[in-house]
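worker-3 :: picked Sodium/calcium exchanger membrane region domain-containing protein
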Amino acid sequence: MSLLGAAFWLLVLVAGVSVAHWGADKLAHPVKKLRQRWALGGTAGGAIVGLAVAMPEVSLTASSVVQGASDIGLGLMVGTNVISLPLLTTIAYVASRPNESPADGENDVSVGDPGRAQRTADADTESSRHALYIDSSAATVVVLPYVAVVSLVALLTLPAPWRGLQPVDGWIMLGAYAVFLTQSVVRGRADADPADPDWSRTEFGLALAGLVTIVVAASFIVRSTDHLAAALGVSDLVGGLFVTAPLGLAPEAFGTWSVVRSGQVTAGSIDVFTDAAATMTLGFFPLAVVGLPIHNFRLYWVSLAFAVGLPAVFAALLYWQRHGYGLERWQVLFYDGLYLLYLAVVVGWVLPH
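worker-3 :: C-alpha cells ->
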C-alpha cells in the first residue's frame, strides 16, 4: 500500500472514531437522569455509564466478525481493557481538578455513607488536595467483580484443552455480565428517593441516532484498521491491540471527562471498569459464536495478564487509599507506569519472538 493510501485509511479511522464519539455522547447524556430516576449511587451509576459507552467496542467486535477480521476484534477487546484503565483514570484525575472540594461531589462520593462527606470535609487540606475522590465501595462493588470477569475469560480461553474462543464461552460470558451488572446496580443503590426527571422526544431520538451512528462507524473503523495493519506489516491482532484500541477509546475519554466534570466523580472514574466488563463479555460474544483460534498466544496471554493485574492493583490502591479520601497523584502516575511496563514487555519480549 502506498503512503497516500495509508494516510487515507488513517483519516477514515480517525473520522470513524470521531463519529463514534458523537454517538456515544448521545447515549451517555441521559445517564444522569437515569441515576436520578432509579436513585443510583456513584458505583451503580458507573455501571450504567459503562454500558452506554461500551457500545462502540461491542459494535466493533461484531463488525470485525461480519467483515471476516475477527482478530481485530480480539485485539480490540483485550487491548482496550489494558490501555483504558490507566488512561481513563488519568483523565478522571485531571477532569476532577475543578471539583477538588469534596462538597462538589457530595451527591457522588457520599452516597450510601452519610458520614463520608463529613470525614472528607475534615480531611487535611494539604494531604488530600491532589486526590481523585472515589467512593471506596467501588473496589468491592465494581473493580473486583471486573477482575473476576477477566479471570473467567482467561480460564475459558488459555488452558490447552479448550484454548481459543468457542460458542459455549460466549454464552457463559453473557451470563457473567448479567451477574456483574445486577450486583453492581443492586449493591450500589443510593439511600434516597427516586426522582422523576423530564424526558423529551428529542433526547430519545438523539440517543437512538447515537446507537445507529456507532454501528455504522464501527464498520469503517474495522475496515480502516485492516488496511493499516497490512500497510504496517503487522497482524490484525497487533493492529487491534495498538491501533484500533487506543483510537477507539476516544468516546470513553470524552465520556469520562464530561461525567467527572459534571460532578459525578465516582461514576465517571469507575465507568472504565464497567465499560471494560461490557467489552470483555458482550464484545466477547460475537467472536466466540463464530469460534476463534488464538494465533499469537504469547501476545494474547501477556495482554490478558495485564488486563487482570491492572484492575487488581487499582482495587488495592482504592481500598487502602490514604485517609480514605481518594487516589493521590503519585498513585495515578504509578498506575500509568504499569501500562508503560506492559509496552516494554510487548516490545522487548513478545514481538521479537
